[in-house]
Specification:
single chain; 191 residues; mainly beta; five-stranded parallel sheet; 0% helix; 30% strand; elongated
Length: 191
């Protein structure tokens, strides 16, 4: 059966990894706790407008606790760039060695508004890096001071790095981050 939302009053992910299919929303009325290397992987579905529409949503009415070694992994749609939105009604508490990891979870190779014309690095809030032999870089897009879009990948289907993902996070209470929020792109490779 097709379903698009996973709903709980409260939820604890303890020493387990939960990965949901593309476009599944998670709604927790009270608190969501990730502990003992617990992880939640969410994948965005393609949308019409990547600035205003959400590919998947994690909505927590209470507090979100991410303890040591535990992670939320939001994955943007690889060709459309739609992101996962994380909304927390109360407090966000991320312990050291835990966090939200969107590294290399943006556009896949050859996709994104900042894809370079040749072998240079992809752009996003600024232009990408110069490629081998002075090849042109990917151009900037989005807002460098308020980035909301997934990162573009390089042009090559086999050698380019994948773009960094997007962390769309809205917190109604306090945000205490002793851990990591990361959305870096991947490095390209050479032959």
């Amino acid at each position: 059966a097709d379903w698009t939302q996973w709903t709980h009053t409260s939820l604890t992910l303890d020493d387990c990894v939960v990965g949901l299919e593309e476009g599944i929303d998670v709604s927790v009325t009270q608190d969501l706790v990730l502990t003992n290397n617990g992880a939640l992987h969410m994948f965005a579905a393609p949308v019409t407008n990547v600035l205003t529409d959400t590919g998947a949503a994690l909505t927590v009415g209470g507090s979100l606790h991410v303890f040591e070694g535990s992670w939320i992994v939001p994955v943007a749609h690889p060709t459309n760039g739609a992101a996962v939105k994380i909304g927390v009604g109360a407090d966000l508490l991320i312990a050291a060695t835990g966090g939200i990891d969107a590294d290399m979870r943006g556009y896949t190779r050859g996709f994104g508004p900042g894809v370079p014309y040749d072998s240079g690095g992809a752009g996003h809030g600024g232009h990408g890096g110069m490629g081998f032999g002075g090849k042109i870089f990917g151009y900037a897009y989005g807002d460098a001071e308020w980035p909301m879009l997934a990162g573009s990948a390089g042009r090559s289907a086999t050698l380019a790095g994948r773009g960094g993902g997007a962390i769309r996070l809205h917190v109604g209470g306090r945000a205490v981050v002793d851990g990591t929020l990361t959305a870096k792109g991947g490095h390209g490779t050479t032959t």
